C-alpha cells in the first residue's frame, strides 16, 4: 500500500484530470517530466527533462534537530524519533527507533526479530532502516506521502508516518521542543480540531472529532473551498471523479467518518477504493487528533501543508 497523500505537498497533475487531485487532498508532491526532441540530425532523439516541483504554499522546514518521544512502553518498547534538517530545508538524518527500559533497540532483539520474521516476513532490523531511508530520500523535503507502508509492518509504518509528519510540522515552525506522545493513554472527553492552512486545487481539509468515554462519537472530516463550501457539494467535481475513480467526495467522506466512529481507531479505518490518497490523509490526520485527545489538548492544530506545482 502506498501512502501518498499527506499534508506536505500537492499533486502536480492538472485538476482537470481529477485522477489524482480527486483522490487526494493538498498533500502529495510529485515531479513531472517532459520530452524535448532534438532536431540536430535526421534521426532526432527525444529525452526526458525532469522538472523540480515548486513550493507554492506552506513553509519550508527550518534547519535544526527535531525530536519526538513516546511516554509509555508497549510490549516492552517505546518510540524515540528525531530528524535533522539542513539549511536548504531538507531532512538529512532520520533516526526512528524503538527502545526498551535498558535503552536497547528492538533492532538488536534477536529473539523478537526472528519470531516476527517468521510470522510477518519482516522485522525491525529490516523495516526500521527502510523507513528511515525513505524519509531521508524521496520524502526529504517533508513529503511524508512518498513513504511506503512496509508489508508485514503496517502498524509500525503508520506510526512512523504519523510521527514523521508531526516532526515536519515542528520543523516548519522551527520548534525544537521534544514532542511528547502519551501513547496508549485513554482519550479525554472533548472536541479536537485540525485544519489545513493552505488550499490545493481550491480546497483544504477541516477535521474535528468528538470523544466521550474514550470513544470517538463523532467525526467531521471535510474539504472546503474559500467560500466554505464542501467538496461534497461540488456537483461537477463529484460527477467527473465518479466517472474516473468510481467514487467521489460525496461517497468517500461519509464512509471515512463512519469508519472512524465505528472503530475509534484510525489504523482500523478502511481505505476507500478509488480514494486511496484521501483515505490515507484522513488516517494521518485522525492519528494526530487521537494523540491530541490522549493529551487532552483541545487547541486547534493548524497544519501548514506544503503545496507544490510546476
Automatic annotation (TrEMBL):
Residues 22-47 have a biased composition (Low complexity). Residues 22-51 are annotated as: Disordered. Residues 76-171, 202-293 form the FMN-binding domain. The keyword Signal applies. Keywords: Signal. Residues 1-21 form the signal peptide. Gene3D superfamilies: 3.90.1010.20. It holds the Pfam family FMN_bind. Coiled coil: none annotated. The keyword DNA damage does not apply. SMART domains: FMN_bind. InterPro entries: FMN-bd, PplA-like. This is Extracellular electron transfer flavoprotein PplA. It comes from Lactiplantibacillus nangangensis.
